[in-house]
Design goal:
The complex is a heterotrimer of chains A (306), B (335) and C (308).
Chain A (H helix, E strand, L loop, with lengths): L1 H26 L5 H5 L6 H11 L5 H14 L12 H36 L4 H15 L2 H15 L15 H27 L2 H8 L4 H30 L2 H7 L4 H10 L3 H29 L1 H4 L3
Helix pairs in contact in A: 1-4, 1-13, 5-6, 5-8, 5-10, 5-13, 6-8, 7-8, 7-11, 8-10, 9-10, 10-13, 11-12, 12-13
Chain B lengths: L3 E14 L2 E14 L3 E5 L6 H8 L8 E12 L2 E4 L5 H7 L4 E4 L3 H4 L6 H12 L4 H14 L5 H5 L8 H13 L5 E5 L7 H18 L2 E6 L2 H7 L2 E6 L2 E7 H6 L4 H8 L50 E4 L2 E3 L3 E2 L4 E2 L3
Parallel strand pairs in B: 3-8, 3-9, 6-7, 7-8
Antiparallel strand pairs in B: 1-2, 1-4, 4-5, 9-10, 10-12, 11-12, 13-14
Chain C lengths: L19 H14 L1 H18 L1 H4 L37 H37 L1 H15 L3 H12 L3 H29 L2 H7 L4 H37 L11 H10 L6 H28 L1 H7 L1
Helix pairs in contact in C: 2-4, 2-11, 4-5, 4-7, 4-9, 4-11, 5-7, 6-7, 7-9, 8-9, 9-10, 9-11, 10-11, 11-12
The chains are: A mainly alpha (306), B alpha/beta (335), C mainly alpha (308).
Amino acid sequence: MQRYFLSKVGQSILLLVGVLVLVFFLLRLTGDPARLMMSREATPEQVEAFREAMGFNRPLLVQFWDFASGAIVGDFGNSLHYRTPALPLVLERLPATVQLASTALLMAMIVGIPIGLIGGFQPGSPADSLGRLLALLGQSVPNFWLALILILFFAVNLGWLPSFGRDELKSVILPAFVLGLPTLGQLVRLTRSAVLEIRGEDFIRTAHSKGLEPRVIYAKHVLRNVAIPLISVIGVQFGYMLGGSIIIEAVFAWPGIGQLLEQAIGWRDFPLVLAIAVFTSLAVLAINLLTDVAYAVIDPRIRYGH
Amino acid sequence: MVSTILQVRDLVTKFYTLDGVVHAVNGVSFDLDAGETLAIVGESGSGKSVTMMSLLGLIPTPPGKIERGEAQFTTNNGTHDLLKMSVHDLRDVRGGQIGFVFQDPISTLNPILTIGEQISETLTRHLKLSQEDARKRTLELLVSVGIPDPELRYKAYPFQFSGGMRQRVVIAIAIACNPQIIIADEPTTALDVTVQAQIVDLFGRLQDKLGVAVIWITHDLGVVAGIADRVLVMYGGRPAEIAPVDDLYEHPCHPYTLGLLGALPRLDARESKRLVSIPGNPPDLLIPLQHCPFAWRCEYAFDRCWQEIPPLRTVDAAHQAACFYDLQKGGPRDA
Amino acid sequence: MATRQLAPTADSLLDVERTFRDRLAYMGRFLWRDRSGVIGLVLFLVVVVTAVLAPVIAPYDPLAQNLRDAKLPPAWEAEGSWSHPMGTDNLGRDLLSRVIYGTRVSLTVGFFGVLIAGTLGLVLGAIAGYVGGRVDTSIMAVVNLVLSLPYLLFVVVIASILGRSLVNVILIFGITCAPLFARVARGEVLRIRESGYVESAISAGAGSGRIIFDHIIPNLIGPMITLATFEMSAMIFYEAGLGFLGLSVPPSVPSWGNMLAAGRKYLTSYPWIATWPGLAIMFTSLGMNLLGDWLRDVLDPRLRRARK
């Protein structure tokens, strides 16, 4: 188990280095990062001054070393817009995004997994057909568009829920629902197919041949095995929601990292953009690592390096 | 006095699939005496596994349906028809009075539970033992099936065992509650030859010790010779021949059995005989036949074989065959 | 003595040697049995035909502004008229025509995006799987890196760096989705390699080229096409997302994403600008997801067991 964990940590560190290289390279994709960050009206002299001040004229390797060594300790330079260090601005917004993503994930799991279970244990039933339809819609509807429609309906017309902001407790309902909807669809399908597949396995036949009670077979033999692929997907989806909340946060003016990203892009504030990109990637990598660990806890074959 | 503990009569099982109706089992009848080993031999698709699974309601019943038949099972609690039992009662029989050993031990065991747990759960279910008692008994069982270091092995997982060891675990599960019958469906097919011999040996010893009857399903007549008291040969979902084992090898009465025997490599063959495989393919079970299912591949088939289904008839003491042709005589059977 | 006949055997469609026509017929039977697959195909074809025939079907030029008729509601509302069945937007442009032309943008992005991603991914994945060793490790390192990143975030950042253009959007999707194709391709190639198929071909004297073309590529096509269908649907979704944030094609181009962006601004006063493109995206995605599901069932022999 230790070996497994260490190798995963090692991989994560390598990935982090990869992220830093990638992000560094992305900023220089158009060749001139200074021009990218300045407004269109800037004169060539202003751009050159800016370029000099940001150190873009130095050799690339030096720039990268500077950037990477800073990033590791959390120094991404100052936000161009706020003129204060970039990372604390991101961290300030973190709780809001975590709240949103967690609520969305919980909603998706609480609704999606039971529906998937029903579908897996009673395939072809009306409940199953309904569940699959729901899953399909959840994955086909553009969730940010649905957000607009729901805002119109619940907030403007009915006035039950706030249409933007994070002021009240129920502010999180609409954004979380909309953010979690694709995940809900995915969980329904995955749970259903996992249950069906496991039920067809030989060891379930063995469980029946032992005369075990159905309750026991489902809980001990089926569900525990279903949990394995489920854990993996849940982890990935949580990462996806943390990193992909930008549009939803924009629609609902939710004061999280996603909204900050949209603003930063509008301001051409790329130090801030990079800080967000690296930090979010790190968060996703951490979640993936945790998922791998959880995976090993549930599946002994992984633990013992099979 | 030897008693009959299982009497199966005219079992018919069909599967209603999207491709049509599969006539998997078409009227199987046989008896099983206490403590004896009955081998059921046939190719894949002959219906041997489905027959056994039908008896305990282990076939999936949306596509599958047991159309008719009876299976009188005699225990200390009297004689009951397995096919008429409620699911609730059947669950008591499964694992409790009839144990199973399946073919491929790696897929037969739950990969994420310890083998100790998988044995113990049978004990707690049927014998109502406490956790601690179940554990003790499990350790005894592990020893009796020849697994060393039972304390250590109790906490191990299936993937940590070799194929032979895993099969021993499966056998331990099967005998855990001292059943009357063990149904072993190709228990050695997925194992190495040397391990096969060990498992066959183990079965023999356990039978002597526990007096359990064994139904041994296989496609390999070579294995049968070493373990069976009687043999039931199946083809196309029907019984082709039933006989005591020696009788079957010396005086086969069904052309299919003859073919199977001819396909056996034999150490005592005088010249280098070529292995004769039976040409042709097994019948398509989607088509309900009105004639002998073996007729296509039979070199003795004549016109009657194509007109009626040959019933199982007594040809000798304890020897029955479903064939219109008399192999001993060399011509159609009288009457 | 009776003549020996070979008994008819049950149909075995796992046989790779089946002719193309047999496969088509088999798929046809599936299509009938699985009417949702038909629905998906129909929806998809409707979108494609709409895109192709856009100049013919659309009643107006999507860019034609008519400030006098701005913000008209759909025909069935009080102030609406049938000359603009879906209404008009804030600049008086006919919504129906814009939705129709929007199919062109979405399908172009989706199609070329998948083309690039699929080709790039297939080549890289197949090489990684076939050659193995260091090549495999290095390719998969990059693939795993990209796949472990938060996708939407990076797409948004890259789009903001590169600027608004159709080509940029296609390139972004094409390159960022290639790793997924690469991973699937590699997986398939490994599976084929391990099945002993390749070994027997080699021992029969087949050269690498022949092995690749006759054995490996036919087995890759199925999973690739299935993945392509789902990815195309995803790209249409993400293009709309980018457009919504103002990072996709230039604002003058009638894309569904751009329409949604405009619709967001006028949501409370005039919701119709936002409604129609969203519905269009939904139906397109629905069709492609259904189609993808059906393709996956049909093209993957291992899954056919589970259908019964």
